[in-house]
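Hey, why these numbers?
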Amino acid sequence: MNAPFPVPSAHPSPWSGPPAAQVAHSQAVTPRFDLRNKDVFSIAGRVHEFERRLDGRLQFLCVEDKEPLFITDEQLAFLSARGEARLVAGNFQDGKPRGPLPSRLKLTKEQVAQVDRKLDYVNACARGFVEGEARPRAPYEFRRSKPALDPIILHVALIKGEKAPHFTTVLGWFDLWMSLGDIHGKACLVDRHNHKGNRRKPFGHVGEVALERGVWRWLSPGMTTEMAYAKVVTSVQAYKRKLARHLAPEELDLIEVPSLRTFQRRCKDVDKYVRDYYRKGPEYAAKMHRTYEVQALPARPYQDVEVDHCTLDILLVDDDSDLVLGRPDLIIFRCRKTGMIVGASLGFEAPSFASFIAGLRHAIYPKDMSAFPAVRMPWPCYGRIENLWVDNALHFIGKDIEAAARELKMNKPRFKPKCPWLKGALERFFGYLNTGLVHVLPGTTLSNTVERREHDSETLDRAKIRQSEFLSLLMFFICDVHNVHKSKGLGLLRGIGDIPLRVWNEEAARHPSGPLPPAELFVALCGEWEDRTIQNDGIVWGHIKYECPELLSLITNPGHRSAREDGAGTRYRCARDPADLGRIYVVDPYDRDGRIITVPATRAHRAYAEGRHRHVHDLAVANARRMVQGAFDFDALMRALDLLGDAAAAARAKPERKAVHRGLARFLDAQRKARFRSEVRTGTPAHPATTAGHLDPLAIARRPKPAASALPAPPPSPRSEPPAAGHERPLPLVPPQDGVPSDARPASPPPQALEEPGPGMPPAVPAAEAPIAAAPASEPADDLDDELAALKAAKNWRTDDE
């Protein structure tokens, strides 16, 4: 025998009774149902008609596909007890109901009172007396006649104080109660006025088709009923033009155009889900018209953990560089069984695989709360995650995360797209965090534009909270606020709620955790890999230097190559954690077991790199480059290099030593004049006899020169130029002094000023102590030397100025 639907093997078959009853009472006889042909039953959700009894079984025929069904009376009784089988309609001649009978659960108080009134008349006619009165002595026999029933009906109506119904009406109630009362109860006597009336459509086929086309036009996005009604009118007119060749004008006039009000009622009758599906999209319809289902809690902690991210509405500042890091992204891991927040990751780059792995590592390993002394409540969460529920964000469904889940032996099921209510508790946490912590701090950006207008402009969008301070506030909020806050989704009875920390303490004591994965595994999963060489000062990666004594075992290995000796140095594979730049991991290629060397940052960089995120480091580097670029004059550097290149090219064009010397002297002299610019002021010197041999702004700081006969000829100075013939040497420059005219000031400073040189200048050397420049003895004298000596004597050049 084939059952109408599959039955799991773990449960007893619906077609058999209790096994104990069959064994203990093998000789017992079960009663048989009094069924008639064409009785309609609903069995297992399908409509069947009773056909006959065959070999002790009941034969039913499915109305839909004409498939036979054979069951026993006992099986039918068990199906009726479970609500899987019920009589829909019996094959009776009198009192056949009009339309399907309502369910007893649907009856209102008014309908029950109406049925009780009818039963008073039915019972009085069936028994011959009114309930509560003494029975008549003469035997009573029910007869379907007016003289026999009218006195009883009038007596009941007199007691109730109402008009007596007609005896034929009471007979109809009697037939329904006798035939259907033992199956449907009081529901068989309920008035079904909704099945009365004319069922014919007010418009013919043409009007109905036009209304349907108009409704489809109205279901378009942004369409109004007035615009869609035009489709109804044009459809009817098109049908009339098409039928004009077959129908007479009088018949065409009978085809009416439905009114606008009729069309509006048809649009109003459209199902709301269908309306929103076509007018606003399937996502909106699924979001607005859904049923809420409370999901069952897992059996143990860390069995189901859900993760999501949120960009917080606040601007944070870096602790060291005072750079505005921007709005942080927060990734939260929540345990469904206990409601505890088991892990968090705070970053400033877009949600990525690295930030996800950082949060996952924080969720799996125990938390070190020594850096947060303000946190009073413990955070005891750690363990292996069995199922990690993620949404459909791109940074949660990538291949890297799938590979990490396989390596950690962790399932990664996904929620349905655009269904945030499937992780409603985690979504409420982000909202509670924003309203309870973020929006009350200075530097918040606020997610609501209306609130931004009413907020204090002195604290809005002005970053004042440092990253370490906000992290401490976040840890305090999670441990001392959320984890000890009452949650309605927990507890034995959902809705009453429980405290997450208390539930965790109970469940963690009963369910031990497995061993945790090694820390190097997370560095391998999310770390950055590069090939680096080992220099004399260690390994440089991202302007940070890493060095430790264990690197000596690599550079002293015979297989190591040096860039000085071999032309190219050996590159070693290095990895670093993007969340902590304080150390890197170097793979030893000379070790058979693949030894990993942990190399910390040098002392000069350790304070900066320890615990610093890669994104923050990139911001600091970019800001430092901008500062240097702002103080750097690229055009001036290019001009200087151009002049230097011209001097070098001119020197290489004339390889003679004296020619090179003169060319470089001219170049250096021009550069010196460019640095020491002066302004010539006209005026009468204090001592007319005092003159200067050249325009030297530092001449006033030199000592007076002795007689030319007592000293050897001084060497030429690159600062001086020979005066033109017939002109006197210009007067020395005297800096102007406030309140003293230029002609009243001495041309040379006092002796004290001569002995103390200015800042940045070499001390003045007396002429008697100046060294005498002499050519080396090994160098032969030539004509150029004689010309140079004569030029020195004529131009009064000094050797110390060269």
